[in-house]
Amino acid sequence: MLAPVAAWLGAHGVSPFMLRLIVQLGLIVAVFFALQISAAVLVYMERKVAALVQQRYGPYLVGPHGLMQPLADIVKLMFKEELRPKTADTALFYVAPVLSAVAAFAAFSVVPFGADTTLFGLLDRPIHLAAADVNVGLLVIFAITSMGVYGIVLAGWASNSKYSLLGGLRSSAQMISYELSYGLSFAAVIMLAGSLSLGHIVDAQAGYWFGVIPKWYIFIQPLGFFIFLTAGVAETNRAPFDFPEAEQELVAGYHTEYSSMSFALFFLAEYVNMVTVSAVATDLFLGGWHGPFLPEWLGGVWFFGKLFAILFFYIWMRWTLPRYRYDQFMEFGWKYLLPAAVINLLVTAAVVVYFGF
Amino acid sequence: MDALFFWILAAAAVVASLLVIGQRNPMHSVMWLIVSFCALSGLYVLLGAPFVAAIQIIIYAGAIMVLFLFVVMLLNVPTETPTEGPRRLLTAGPRRFGAVLAVVLVAELAWALRRVQGAAMPVNAAETSVHAIGLRLYRDYAFAFEATSVLILVAMVGAVILARRESK
């Protein structure tokens, strides 16, 4: 469709390689801004869903149906005073929120959100619809997520406040405990697909069983999906596992001493992390951009539909379930979730070896 | 291009490692160590081994350093004060021992560097894939691999027994 455009550009000195480069750079910028906007949309969604659950209207004054509320929130945060406790460790105090936000954005960079495409013939070769194409993508996500915990731990320590420190400690303990189950639920899917690349894993889920059931891994890995979601909630510090900031116990946990934009960065990181976990869940278990009824090039609709379904589930859960008790939470992670993940992995491995999936 | 990245990453790794021992605050030391690990991981990417690079970050920078941080935070180690702490340690005995260790280290480094001199590291993409590493680990080096697992298991059991409360 767009091949003539490419030909015209080629005649005017834009080589196919340069065109690919420009498109890839555009993709990176687009992903960056899409993540920021999605955080704003999620804030609005969170407040509206919370209102729905609690039978009230939620934000309604700024813009039609309160649609401009996230903008108002951002303006409010920007005009607040930047505070720093006198005894805080200056360097680490300011590095911590930046680290959180950077890790959150970087983790999404290897998540593909659509099938390889030539953009309707604009490019000579298909490109991957992701900010970066890495053949060990899943491991990169895992690595960067595990770096994200430093933002929270350092914030807790550098604030030099008891509540913050407790929040930071809880966060590191929580991350270490749930990272194991998280990784093991990954591993089962990796074995089924035989690849560490998210794009390959999604493509392994194309097609149907008996012509009706989509070949999504959720149908052969229901336990894996449950473990992934549970550990994902723990990794993103969302209710009912939001111990690092448990407001009834720790005031606001690790970000007690933060205000203005430093606080906003933590806020942003939390929502971007939510988007990343949901996108990875979509790619790993829900078949990514594959789905019935729609033509191949509209796969993005499926991807974003599934993404928002999981995000809605996240928010729904937060406003429905009460927070666990910390010791119960740890016990659940080590005594139930981890053994379940190990058994799931072993059974999957056995099935893959004997039936050659 | 590769050479440029190599020098940047190598310099970052060396400088960060030096800063690790130059800090008075153990917390800052841990952070510089993480920076050093990340630079190392970048070097692995340059060598064409993305799998090893990712594992380096996950295991060292991600898991082990979080434990370090955890311990440093829990122990609440006070900032080293130059007036009393180190003085006590630097008696004649430890000094001599340290000097011997330093000489041994320099000799080992010189020996190791002399051996690889000139020979460029061969990079084979097929050798660094997950599949190839798995085959190597479970076929050629199965004994060493299993021995390491047993060693780690023993260490784990030992830690649990040491940490267990004395039953009356």
Please, could you describe this protein's structure?
The complex is a heterodimer of chains A (357) and B (168). Chain A has 357 residues and is mainly α. Chain A contains twelve helices and two strands, in the order αααααααββααααα. Chain A has helices at 3-11, 16-53, 69-78, 90-108, 137-158, 162-193, 198-203, 222-235, 247-250, 260-285, 299-320, 326-355; strands at 208-209, 213-214. Chain A has a two-stranded antiparallel sheet with strand order 1-2. In chain A, α6 runs antiparallel to α8 (222-235). Chain A is globular. Chain B has 168 residues and is an all-alpha fold. Chain B folds into two domains: 1-78, NADH-ubiquinone/plastoquinone oxidoreductase chain 6, subunit NuoJ (Four Helix Bundle (Hemerythrin (Met), subunit A), Up-down Bundle); 129-168. Chain B is built from seven helices and no strands. In chain B, α2 runs antiparallel to α3. The mean pLDDT of chain B is 80. The chains are: A mainly alpha (357), B mainly alpha (168).
